[in-house]
């Protein structure tokens, strides 16, 4: 069976690294390229983080492209310390001074357009960060979305509950205009793994301990980068995320979108409806609105994921940290 062709657009923080390793471990996935965008860290740190993950998994041959360093319009939003200042928990001291030589010279947006044009209707695009690169791609090539097979997004929210602002999820809040453009103009089949979807399908903290204590380089790497990160503290998350989702356990946000791409049967329920991103509200800017009553009269609908098969998802996570297989 032919492998599924995938481009991963990422602002590589810890959960992006986990999602990337899930794709690297999947036998049915061929990664054509990885495009980097600002978000969890500066785009320069994102590039370095991706290179480190590929090195850990001994997959250095996958091309990495540097993309947008800020939002489509306006000034950059201030980043949070959710995954540390470098995106990987601020525990890695030995930086690669020659990392720029390992990044492709082609801009991420140009690479995205080229790779999809060379493989029309065969590429799945998985977007794990702010959607700036995608929005710019459709501005450069208005036909870009119709050349995609499908699009998987980690971002947005279903109920107006925010994790960066009062009403907006991080990726959409970082660049609301780009999120708006993508969800209005990308008419390919689109799957949204929202903040609530990930949080409501959390795994136990006991599973997290099992996950990172496997005897493999990728697991040891994940254990290291989560070791001092408050976002992987059970106590911290009970006080923060637990306000909205009592009893919520371990959540690897970006992995939920990646799992849907790797194995569609992981998703057991979804809502198919039009959506729109709010741009004007003083408290709701960046919030995703679900139009379940067809008030907006939009013809295009997206799949907003709601429930997943926890056993299948857990297995994909476990396999993702057993890399490389010969070590």
Automatic annotation (TrEMBL):
Coiled-coil regions listed in the entry: none
InterPro entries: Inosine/uridine_hydrolase_dom (IPR001910), IUN_hydrolase (IPR052775), Ribo_hydro-like (IPR036452)
Domain Inosine/uridine-preferring nucleoside hydrolase, first and last residues per copy: 6-314
One Gene Ontology MF term: hydrolase activity, hydrolyzing N-glycosyl compounds
Lineage top rank: taxon: Eukaryota
Similarity section: Belongs to the IUNH family.
Name of the protein in its database record: Inosine/uridine-preferring nucleoside hydrolase domain-containing protein
The organism of origin for this protein: Anabas testudineus (Climbing perch)
């Amino acid at each position: 069976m032919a492998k599924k062709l995938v481009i991963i657009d990422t602002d590589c923080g810890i959960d992006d690294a986990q999602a990337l390793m899930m794709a690297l471990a999947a036998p049915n996935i061929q990664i054509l390229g990885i495009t980097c965008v600002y978000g969890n860290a500066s785009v320069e740190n994102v590039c370095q983080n991706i290179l480190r993950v590929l090195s850990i998994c001994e997959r250095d041959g996958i091309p990495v492209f540097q993309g947008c360093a800020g939002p489509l319009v306006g000034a950059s939003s201030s980043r949070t310390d959710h995954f540390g200042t470098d995106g990987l928990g601020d525990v890695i001291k030995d930086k690669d001074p020659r990392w720029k030589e390992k990044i492709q010279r082609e801009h991420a947006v140009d690479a995205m357009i080229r790779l999809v044009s060379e493989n029309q209707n065969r590429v799945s695009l998985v977007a794990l960060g702010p959607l700036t690169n995608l929005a710019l791609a459709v501005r450069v090539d208005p036909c870009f979305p119709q050349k995609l097979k499908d699009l998987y997004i980690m971002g947005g929210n279903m109920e107006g509950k925010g994790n960066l602002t009062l009403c907006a999820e991080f990726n959409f809040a970082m660049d609301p205009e780009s999120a708006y453009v993508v969800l209005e103009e990308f008419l390919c089949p689109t799957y949204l793994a929202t903040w609530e979807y990930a949080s409501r399908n959390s795994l136990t903290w006991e599973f997290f301990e099992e996950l990172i204590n496997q005897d493999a380089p990728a697991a040891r790497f994940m254990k290291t980068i989560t070791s001092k990160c408050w976002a992987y503290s059970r106590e911290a998350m009970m006080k923060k995320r637990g306000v909205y989702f009592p009893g919520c356990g371990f959540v690897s946000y970006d992995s939920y979108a990646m799992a849907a791409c790797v194995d569609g049967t992981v998703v057991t329920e979804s809502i198919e409806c039009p959506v729109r991103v709010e741009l004007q509200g003083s408290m709701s800017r960046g919030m995703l609105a679900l139009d379940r009553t067809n008030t907006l009269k939009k013809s295009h609908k997206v799949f907003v994921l709601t429930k997943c098969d926890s056993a299948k998802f857990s297995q994909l996570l476990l396999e993702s940290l057993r890399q490389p297989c010969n070590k």
